[in-house]
Amino acid sequence: MVKMLKKVIVITALILFSTSLIQEESASALSGNWGGGNAKTVGYGYTTSGNYVKAIQINLWAAGFSSTVGTIDGKFGAKTKAGIVAYQKKYGLSADGIAGSKTWGHMYSKLVDLGRGTSGYTTYKFNPDGSGHYAYWEDNYRGTYLYGPYSEATLYTSGGSTVSSVTIRD
Q: Is 151 within 8 Å of 137 (Cβ atoms)?
């Protein structure tokens, strides 16, 4: 009886250990596969208008900074910069108001993989703090270009109404 109990304990420990390894591998694969820097840097001196600015505004809304960012218009200004700074401070990033590879990479690490949708592309949900808005990102190249060319995002209210969307083609 004691031998049987020891075997059960050893097998259970092995299963728990291997499960934790698989979870760590999955998490690192997601956080390291955001397109290798495909997203353009957003901020003064960098990209200040267009779809990448709109994409960062969508993510900032979904992260709970809608009142800081204001209108999602694809134009970088004081409010978008303030939203980026607030996000960076909240998550312990360098708070410079520029969305570069570290900020985009951090946002990528907060995505939840929802699997392939009806379109055949992988869909991700971005709502890091459970705020009233959330964004669905779809990568049209299956994990290669998220936050880069050929990715799309739609921002929703908690009730499911569409607030804004963007398709990145450059």
A: yes
